Amino acid sequence: MRPLSEVHAIVPAGIDDAARVSGGNVYDRRVLDGLRASGWAVTEHPVSGSWPRPDGAALARLDAVVATVPPRGLLFLDGLVASCADSVLVPAAAAGLRVVVLVHLPIGLADPLAAEGEQRVLTAASAVVTTSGWARDVLLDAYALAPDGVHVARPGVDRAPASVGTPGGTRLLCVAAVTALKGHADLVAALALVADLPWSCVLAGALDRDPAVVAALRGRLSQEGLTDRVHLAGALHGADLEGAYAAADLLVLPSHVETYGMVVTEALAHGLPVVATAVGGLPEALGEVLGEVPSEALDGADDGRPGLLVPPGRPEELADALRCWLTDADRRERLRRRALHRRLQLSPWSRTVEDVSAVLGGAGDL
Questions:
Q1: What secondary structure does DSSP assign to 113-157, as a single string?
Q2: Domain total for the chain?
Q3: Residue 225 is part of a domain; what is its CATH number?
Q4: 20-47: string of b/e by CB count within 10 Å (b at 16+)?
Q5: Per the domain annotation, does 162 fall within a domain?
Q6: Distance CA 192, CA 169 (A)
Q7: Are residues 357 and 331 in the same domain?
Q8: What is the band of 293 on the pLDDT scale with cuts at 50, 70, 90?
Q9: 333 plus 357 within the same structural domain
Q10: Considering the domain boundaries, does residue 165 fall inside one?
Q11: Which end of the chain has less Cβ packing within 10 Å, N or C?
Q12: Residues 321 and 214 both lie in one domain
């Protein structure tokens, strides 16, 4: 049977809302637009609801959309919707729909009560797409899925002009919505520990996701006397975000949870080194160390990571990494060279689209 050329894509409503930019939304948009450009007939179905915790009305809207898909049709769903909709999708798959689920982050990790429903959906699916090898491993371990049905399509990135940087490496940048899971409290605590050194830090991320976290962060900045050195810029887009990368020396990402970490590859596309937590897919995005050589001994452009990894939730170790960056000119130069080398290895979005297209085509052959 020839691969299907028509796909119905179900996404959360608002994926194009500039006020609520997320890595998942960007991924969905780039992939769906890329599939159209490569010849797929894509019908988008934005479904409103408080995903991944929908009420009955949201599930009814999803059910009505699924009912419009032709028999044996191909259904491609964002996991934010799919993983909590087993009551809709398992019967649809049993009736013959080819269901392909794109999992950005397994919801069962954060909500064990949702794990059973997520497993039912992913087991019933014709194929599953993950955005990192880490996420694929998590799903295989947690849900005993067939390995040949779970695929990886890592996010792409657009090549950008290399940032020039400053001699002292003092311009720090964190790109993440200000929420508890992104670790901003750890970052501020770490910055307080290196307050004796010269630096400035821009926090570029939405400030409306968790007002209590933002208020606590502002209070901590005031308490530590850092309000003049840490700028909460809010969500940045387009030229403003590009300008932030261009002006920075180092990306700092202290997340507690990340499936991949698209901002890491965005920073590397600008030639920026990274200090990040060793969680989820962040090491994968940064690039693996070749061999077991200690980072202190690495000197070439192609034999080590273009950044430093620290444990999550450990401000002292994050501070140590920042102090290392700020005080060791030779280390800064090595990391910059590695970042420029990694910049040349990054995959474009067209590769992501090819990977997803291959999965969809395979599902159409079933």
A1: HHHHHHHHHHHHSSEEEESSHHHHHHHHHHH---GGGEEE-----
A2: 2
A3: 3.40.50.2000
A4: ebbbbbbbbebbbebbeeeebebeebeb
A5: no
A6: 17
A7: no
A8: very low
A9: no
A10: no
A11: N
A12: yes
Side chain identity at residue 46, one-letter code? P
Paired tokens of 209: 């996701």
Residue range 103-130, pLDDT digits in tens: 999 999 888 889 999 999 999 999 999 9
Q: How is residue 157 written in tokens?
A: 């990135």
* Domain, as residue range, for 132: 6-156+348-365
Cβ atoms 46, 80 nearer than 8 A: no
The CA angle 23-27-31, to the nearest 5 degrees, is 175
Task: For tokens 């769906």, name the residue.
Answer: 32
Helix/strand/coil for 225: coil
**What are the residues whose beta carbons fall under 8 Å from the beta carbon of 31, sequence distance 6 or more?**
102, 153, 349, 352, 353, 356
pTM: 0.91
Rounded CA separation 118/168 (Å): 48
| Cβ atoms within 10 Å of 158's Cβ, excluding its own | 12
Q: Indicate whether 178 and 112 sit together in one domain.
A: no
